[in-house]
Amino acid sequence: MMQTQDIQAIRDIIRRAKRWDAFFGVLGILALMVGVLTFMTLFVDMAIQGMGRIDANFFTNFPSRRAEHAGILSAWVGTLLVMLVTGLAAVPLGVAAGVYLEEYAPKNWLTDVIEINITNLAGVPSIVYGLLALGLFVYQFGFGQSILSAGLTLALLILPVVIVATREAIRAIPQIIREGSYACGATTWQTVKDHILPYSSAGILTGVIIGMARAIGETAPIITIGALTFIAFLPPLPFTGVPPAGLLDWLFAPFTVMPIQMFNWTSRPEAAFQTNAAAAGFILVLMTLAMNGTAIWLRYRLRKNITW
Amino acid sequence: MFTTAAIVYILVKESWIFFEAVPIRRFLFDTQWTPLFDDAHYGIMVLLSGTLTSSAVALLVAIPLGTIIAIYLSEFAPFKVREIAKPFLELLGGVPTIVYGYFALVFLTPLLQKIYPELPGFNLLSAGLIMGVMIIPYVASLSEDAMRAVPMALREGSYAMGATRLQTALRVVMPAATSGIASAYILGISRAVGETMILAVAAGMQPNLTFNPAESGATITSYIVQVALGDLPHGSIGYQTIFAAGLSLLLLTLTFNLLGHWLRKRFREVY
Fold first, then answer.
1. Across chain A, where does the E strand assignment appear?
2. How many domains, in total, are found in chain A?
3. Is B3 inside any structural domain?
4. What distances in angstroms separate CA A178 from CA A169, A170, A182, B11, one per listed residue?
5. pLDDT of residue A183
6. A18 and A107 assigned to the same domain
7. DSSP class of residue B159?
8. Which of A17, A229, A292 sits opposite B90 (nearest CB)?
9. Which residues of A touch B85 (CB under 8 A)?
């Protein structure tokens, strides 16, 4: 008699534990859904709001005081040029730093300090980078509120991302490859150039794309260095500006970028501008989604194809 | 390395000019923040209250949801769900914050106003909620990595004792992954404290000493944006305030990062 009661009690406990288990399974899906649904709502809402504004003119018009004539020409050209500067600055620096840390750096306290430093940099708010750029690039170096300043700022911002991705890609290469190369009498540089870099290039590319996708959406640091929000002209083409015009005049031109254009439209009270903001936001989201999607797909391909 | 040195150098140098004009006691304890008025007050507490309130709202959303998602993905979800959900979370984390800000302003705030009609058009609440959603991917994906790093043998031991998946997750896997989960939370906090555009767009920019999320308020970050958008001359005292504000922000996130570093060391489990 006593025993059946005990068994009953134990069964109750098991049943309760199983019920909680099943409940949590549902809870997990629900929690996931909060994220998914928010994103879906955001995306669909913006698409519905902005779709009416997106046509060829939207891409070829300058911003305007009249909402229905306003476009994003200067914004997307600005974004493109700033990204060019960012990429040219961040990729060589980041890859070189990653290679150095993995293949060259001696194991000592200095390397440790650098490593902790890079981890910490990833946690510094982006607006602080903006303040740095304001003090350093804009005033001390005298670059002004230009494409060059903005590109370099974003390059600093994504440098940790590129460095970390490079290091991870390099670390995934088995030691045997290096040993084989050294056994044939190769120097460290030859090993890096002929083996390490080619084998890690896809991984590095993934990191670069993710970093660039982040840079495209960054607004705060660029506002901080003082990008103008109303730009109704394009940066000068090479050799066309006021003489003495040079190849790189556009580097020092004032500019605007997509997120700033969107911020500008969002902060206006008229409803028509909100529509423009939705349209610009929609294009911006599509751009970052495409870039991040490419990166994820690349990584997936990479994981499947690598057999050492 | 150069970047860190440069950040510290610029912030300290420019803040120095500010603190020469404004004693540090007034910076820390004044309860008003009106640096642009004639009767200037520089109480960082005001901006700090906005930052802390919005971050608290964000973390109340992000930490529970992020943790649940992490447990679900690491212990419950079938392989296929995880393969789809993880990249999706990454995409979610890649959406520009200005877009989230726009969404908070034109979608979430009107929605909340239907429930609380007295809610102002700019408020810390909807900005904080959206910020929470923005942080979920960071918290979830890092905690999940930490939980997946727990050796299978621990789980098998737990299952062999007849534990359910939930019991295993809560009593075996999570304690073993504490250090990783803690650093995921810390990263979430840093993100929330440093987030700028959502607040600049959706929370309004009136400095307001309040811990009530249903009011509008300025944060350290949105104040910097506000000044940068204006046309204050370089070198004026109002202009120097943004460097002082930035320095406070950097110190705040640095504290959290060091805390995270310490937690990781303190709770690390070695197998």
1. none
2. 2
3. no
4. 14, 11, 6, 43
5. 92
6. no
7. H
8. A292
9. 32
| Confidence at residue A72, expressed as pLDDT on a 0 to 100 scale | 72
Are B101 and A266 within 8 A, CB to CB? yes
Give the model confidence (pLDDT) of B69-110 as tens digits.
999 988 888 888 888 888 888 888 778 888 888 888 877 777
Mean pLDDT calculated for residue range A52-74: 68
Task: Supply the CATH number for residue B144's domain.
Answer: 1.10.3720.10
* CB–CB contacts below 8 A, A to B: 218
Mutate which: B51, B98, B143, B186, vs A, most A CBs within 10 A: B98
Same domain for A233 and A103?
A: yes
| A183 & A34 share domain | no
Closest by alpha carbon to B72, among B160, B134, B3, B141? Answer: B141
The per-residue pLDDT for range A174-183, each reduced to its tens digit, is 888 889 999 9
A33-37, A212-216, A228-232, B127-131: least confidently modelled range: A228-232
**Is A104 touching B (CB cutoff 8 A)?**
no
**By 3-state DSSP, what share of chain B in percent is helix, strand and coil, each rounded to 5?**
75, 0, 25
Identify which of A158, A163, A263, A255 has the alpha carbon closest to the alpha carbon of residue A213: A158
Range B247-255 average pLDDT:
82
Best A20, A126, A128 residue to mutate vs chain B (most B CBs within 10 Å): A128
Range of the domain at A39: 1-51
Per the domain annotation, does B187 fall within a domain? yes
* Cis-peptide, bond into residue A244, ω within 30° of zero: yes
Q: Which of chain B's residues have a Cβ under 8 Å away from the Cβ of A229? A: 229
Report the Cα–Cα distance between both ends of chain B, in Å, rounded: 33
Contact criterion met (CB below 8 Å) for A150 and A79: no
What pLDDT shows up at residue A243? 47
Q: Which parts of B99-163 are beta strand (E)?
A: none
Question: Does B180 score more than 50 pLDDT?
Answer: yes
Query: DSSP for A281-303?
Result: HHHHHHHHHHHHHHHHHHHHHHH
Q: Are A37 and A89 within one domain? A: no
What is the ipTM score, two decimals? 0.78
Does A14 lie in the same domain as A130? Answer: no
Q: Is B46 domain-assigned?
A: no
Give the one of A127, A259, A296 whose C-beta lies nearest to B221's C-beta: A127
Strand partners, A280: none
Quick check: is B35 in a domain? no
Span A260-269, pLDDT tens digits: 777 777 777 6
Tell me the pLDDT of chain A averaged across its residues. Answer: 78
Do residues A84 and A149 both lie within one domain?
A: yes
Please tell me whether residues A63 and A46 are part of one structural domain: no
Q: At A268, is the secondary structure helix, strand, or coil?
A: coil
Looking at the fold, whether A146 and A210 belong to one and the same domain comes out as yes
In whole angstroms, what is the distance from residue B259 CA to residue B254 CA? 8
Residue A305: its pLDDT value, please? 64
Render pLDDT for A2-19 as a digit per residue (tens, 0 to 9): 577 788 888 888 888 888
Segment A237-278, tens digit of pLDDT = 554 554 455 555 666 667 777 777 777 777 776 777 777 788
